[in-house]
């Protein structure tokens, strides 16, 4: 659609601009302010330059959280994307099954994140949880409170449980947009199931898959509530992801300068990712 | 070879073959057999979705199951369903103000946030979908970055900002803070719906002598009513599920149910039944309205871009 050039449109955007500026720009300025200053308490601040940034970028703690977070994102993407595609391909296209599937599958997406954490905290407990109890009854040595590996498995399964439906719904939205004629043509050609997927369904899902990958990557990159409720970042620091570490640093240890510098580094990474997201989306929109 | 090419060659082949009747018959038989086989395959279409849905429902079932048990039963005997169903856990929540106030607080700030977000997003989304203006693309991108910003980055500065304004522990503080990610979301979703309305409708209305506000309220808003509903739903939802910022900005008077739940976990760690009941009650709003947005849910999560 060709749009008219009209700078008066700024007046319509103004409320959004003011509101988001108030809830984003001012806090962000505060963070920048802290990140370049040092304090000895009692509201006395000294110019510290880039000292905090150097400290963050040189600290093992930051890179460890980052590494854990990247590993976590990679694992959940590796599970959720193929699984989501597979389930979307097997979903019914018409009839009563469609709304039932949509509603039931979307349910985990609408549960408050801390309740997701609570559900899995309870579900995985070896004394009262169905999962933990069953696993121990089967003779497996499962305990997410003390064993780092089990904690990771629990957090990953929880995320798969929580967010795979998003991939399913997006892929499904892409699949239903394929006209029936395509399938009929493939049938006449005697195309195999794989050929149908590879040459008809996958190209049509391209766009939504891209959205799914980017959204899942970014959301998992800033995950906080769910693992925090389940493991609290433990055992030790084994499930302390970037956001959890940041909150620990800022509110737990009240280390303002370092936390602020870490926030900025974190935010710049997210900014870069958002830029990728935006570029990809707008180029797709332009094609459309 | 692309599908389209395959299809055309397939059709050519079909035509060539139609000159020989016997071959056509053979082809039809083969086709019918193939279709029958597909039909057999699809008889088990329900298997994968069913297994997946069972996987999704099990943890939720366990929570519901626990919410109807007494603590003795939860900790004592392991059972797949409540042996002695009790409503005690729900009674605790509905009679103790420190519990049920949490729900009221959550609902108050979530509704405030939804109203604010959708109201300011409507004109902005219209501007983005209809006009080009100086810096529009940068602005749109900047809005997106706020949707993607990690709440953890904002927790501390929010606390200090709202302290400075004396807004800590008020509902409006949480409602405003949640605008950070909900306003961009609402703008993106509404822009998607508005771009689906042909521009000719606007132009015709202006020629007919409608002023902009009258056109917007009388003609345009009804056209994108479903979009407004979806945007409102997603604002409601994302505000409802958020914990970190809501917890940081409140202490007692405006404390959301989510924060009250985490407190119970850490403090006593014992009252599993009440915790489960509280969890079940937080799922209900989403479970109730999900039916109305089932066809738009993918669009909403993808920021209106599907």
Question: What does the model show?
Answer:
The complex is a heterodimer of chains A (288) and B (306). Chain A has one domain: MetI-like fold (Orthogonal Bundle), CATH 1.10.3720. In chain A, 74% of the residues lie in helices and 3% in strands. Chain A has helices at 9-35, 51-58, 60-89, 97-106, 113-124, 130-137, 148-175, 180-189, 193-221, 225-231, 242-252, 256-287; strands at 4-5, 37-39, 45-47. In chain A, helix 1 (9-35) runs antiparallel to helix 12 (256-287) and helix 3 (60-89) packs antiparallel against helix 9 (193-221). The longest helix of chain A has 32 residues, at 256-287. The radius of gyration of chain A is 23 Å and the shape is globular. The mean pLDDT of chain A is 86. Chain B has 16 helices and 1 strand. Chain B has helices at residues 3-18, 21-41, 47-67, 71-75, 88-95, 97-130, 136-148, 151-164, 171-194, 199-207, 212-223, 225-241, 244-249, 257-267, 272-289, 297-301, and one strand spanning 131-132. Strand 1 of chain A pairs parallel with strand 1 (131-132) of chain B.
Q: How would you sum up the global shape of chain A?
A: globular
Q: Return the structural class of chain A.
A: mainly alpha
**Which range best describes the helical content of chain A: under 10%, 10-25%, 25-40%, 40-55%, 55-70% or over 70%?**
over 70%
Mean pLDDT of chain A: 86
Give the C-level CATH assignment of chain A: Mainly Alpha
Radius of gyration of CA atoms of chain B, rounded to a whole number: 27 Å
How would you sum up the major sheet of chain A? Answer: 2 strands, antiparallel
In the CATH scheme, the class of the largest domain in chain B would be Mainly Alpha
Euclidean distance between termini CA atoms of chain B: 28 Å
Structural class of chain B: mainly alpha
Name the CATH architecture of chain A. Answer: Orthogonal Bundle
Q: What oligomeric state do the depicted chains represent? A: heterodimer
**Architecture of the largest domain in chain B in CATH?**
Orthogonal Bundle
What percentage of amino acids of chain A are in beta strands?
A: under 5%
Shape label of chain B: flat
Question: Can you say what the CATH homologous superfamily of the largest domain in chain B is?
Answer: MetI-like
Q: Strand order within the widest sheet of chain A?
A: 2-3
């Amino acid at each position: 659609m060709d749009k008219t050039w009209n700078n008066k449109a700024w007046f319509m955007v103004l409320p959004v601009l003011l509101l988001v500026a108030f809830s984003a720009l001012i806090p962000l300025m505060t963070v920048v302010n802290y990140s370049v200053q040092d304090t000895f308490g009692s509201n006395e601040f000294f110019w510290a330059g880039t000292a905090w940034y150097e400290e963050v970028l040189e600290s093992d703690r930051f890179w460890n959280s980052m590494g854990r977070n990247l590993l976590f994102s990679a694992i959940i993407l590796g599970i959720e994307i193929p699984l989501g595609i597979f389930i979307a391909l097997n979903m019914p296209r018409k009839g009563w099954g469609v709304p039932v599937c949509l509603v039931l599958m979307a349910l985990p997406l609408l549960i408050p994140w801390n309740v997701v954490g609570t559900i899995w905290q309870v579900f995985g407990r070896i004394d009262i949880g169905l999962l933990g109890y069953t696993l121990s009854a089967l003779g497996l040595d499962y305990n997410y409170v003390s064993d780092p590996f089990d904690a990771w498995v629990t957090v990953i399964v929880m995320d798969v449980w929580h967010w795979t439906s998003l991939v399913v719904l997006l892929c499904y939205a892409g699949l239903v947009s394929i006209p029936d004629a395509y399938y009929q043509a493939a049938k006449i050609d005697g195309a195999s199931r794989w050929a149908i997927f590879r040459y008809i369904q996958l190209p049509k899902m391209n766009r939504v898959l891209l959205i799914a990958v980017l959204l899942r990557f970014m959301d998992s990159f800033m995950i906080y509530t769910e693992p925090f409720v389940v493991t609290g970042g433990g055992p030790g620091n084994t499930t302390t992801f970037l956001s959890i570490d940041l909150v620990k640093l800022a509110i737990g240890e009240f280390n303002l300068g370092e936390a602020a510098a870490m926030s900025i580094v974190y935010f710049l990474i997210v900014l870069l990712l958002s830029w990728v997201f935006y570029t990809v989306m707008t180029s797709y929109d332009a094609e459309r | 070879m692309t599908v389209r090419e395959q299809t055309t060659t397939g059709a050519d082949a079909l035509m060539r073959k139609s000159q020989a009747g016997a071959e056509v018959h053979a082809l039809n038989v083969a086709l019918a057999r193939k279709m029958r086989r597909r039909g057999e395959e699809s008889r088990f279409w329900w298997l994968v979705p069913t297994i997946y849905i069972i996987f999704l429902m099990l943890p939720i079932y366990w929570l519901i199951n626990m919410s109807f048990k007494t603590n003795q039963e939860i900790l004592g005997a392991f059972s797949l369903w409540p042996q002695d169903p009790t409503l005690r856990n729900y009674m605790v929540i509905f009679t103790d103000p420190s519990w049920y106030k949490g729900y009221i607080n959550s609902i108050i700030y979530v509704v405030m946030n939804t109203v604010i977000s959708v109201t300011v997003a409507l004109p902005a989304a219209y501007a983005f979908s209809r006009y080009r203006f100086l810096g529009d693309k940068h602005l749109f991108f900047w809005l997106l970055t706020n949707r993607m910003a990690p709440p953890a980055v904002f927790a501390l500065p929010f606390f200090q900002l709202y302290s400075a304004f004396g807004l800590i522990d008020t509902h409006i503080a949480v409602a405003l803070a949640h605008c950070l990610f909900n306003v961009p979301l609402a703008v993106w979703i509404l822009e998607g719906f508005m771009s689906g309305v042909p521009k000719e409708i606007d132009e015709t209305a202006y020629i007919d002598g409608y002023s902009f506000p009258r056109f917007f309220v009388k003609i345009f808003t009804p056209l994108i009513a479903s979009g407004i509903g979806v945007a409102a739903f997603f604002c409601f939802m994302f505000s409802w599920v958020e914990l970190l910022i809501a917890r940081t900005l409140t202490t007692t008077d405006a404390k959301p149910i989510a924060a009250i739940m985490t407190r119970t976990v850490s403090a006593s760690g014992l009252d599993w039944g009440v915790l489960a009941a509280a969890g079940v009650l937080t799922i209900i709003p989403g479970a109730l309205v999900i039916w109305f947005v089932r066809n738009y849910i993918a669009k909403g999560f993808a920021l209106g871009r599907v």
